[in-house]
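Researcher: Go.
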Amino acid sequence: MTDHQTRLGRTAAFAAALSTLVLAAPVATAQERTEFRVAWSIYVGWMPWGYMSDSGIMDKWADKYGIDVEIVHNTVIGPPSASEDATGLVLYREAGDPTAV
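Model: Structure:
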């Protein structure tokens, strides 16, 4: 057997072993969700979410696909408060929240 044939045989064996490992690996799948909560704020790119909520377009499509989508209008707040997460980043609260600053 020539050196070229030996290398070719090793390459083919490696490729076969690698493809076996890839095909035998478990497939990761995301958990199916039926409930979603979308927060939007006054920003031009997010304004369609408010329109979809007010007009009922989102409800129509959610019903069609058997999901529940809650669209919440939020305002960004300034000083740290109860809406602060573990990293110290300030999150947002729902519009009209009396504790919003």
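Model: DSSP finds three helices and three strands in the chain.
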